[in-house]
Amino acid sequence: MVFMQFSTGIKYSESDLEKAKTYRAKDYPEYVDPAIEALVREMMSGFADKWTVEILDALWDAGTLRFSKLARRVSGISQKMLTQTLRRMERDGLVVRDLYPEVPPKVEYSLSPLGLTRGAAFCNVWVWALENHEAVAVARSHFDANRR
Question: Which of 34, 73, 86, 117 has the most crowded CB, counting CB atoms within 10 A?
């Protein structure tokens, strides 16, 4: 068994490296349109945004929620931030906003088909975390021990 050692000082086996290769994007093209690259960077910043992830998770679990129920599920978010984030998600095609002409007006939010695919992609982050949380803990511990 061959081991590779990186700057962290942790040794990785060939099977670790083979496993890492399975996470790579398949059939990634040689040339990517700059507009696609810009979209990916934009979406990744939203993907990493705390509130987007929490709203995505809440709507993934609940299906459809009214604004007030969504606000209760996303603990700590202000009304202004919830509104701004939902608008951005709606603009990106991730959320569907249904307005019912009632008094008072009733508004419901749900994930669009595009939002559902993004939710599925986010689930892969959870799978990765489940499979690798111990390795991350070891790396952090090793790093912290060498910083003292």
Answer: 86
Q: Would you list the domain boundaries of the chain?
A: 33-146
Q: What is residue 8's predicted lDDT score, i.e. its pLDDT? A: 44
CATH code given to domain 33-146? 1.10.10.10
Q: How open is the CA angle 75-102-68, to the nearest 5 degrees?
A: 5
- The sign of the dihedral angle between the CA atoms of 31, 32, 34, 35 is positive
Q: What is the pTM of this model?
A: 0.64
* Ramachandran angles phi, psi of 106, nearest 5°: -110, 125
Q: Which residue has the tokens 């979209």?
A: 39
In this predicted model, which residue has the larger pLDDT, 79 or 16? 79
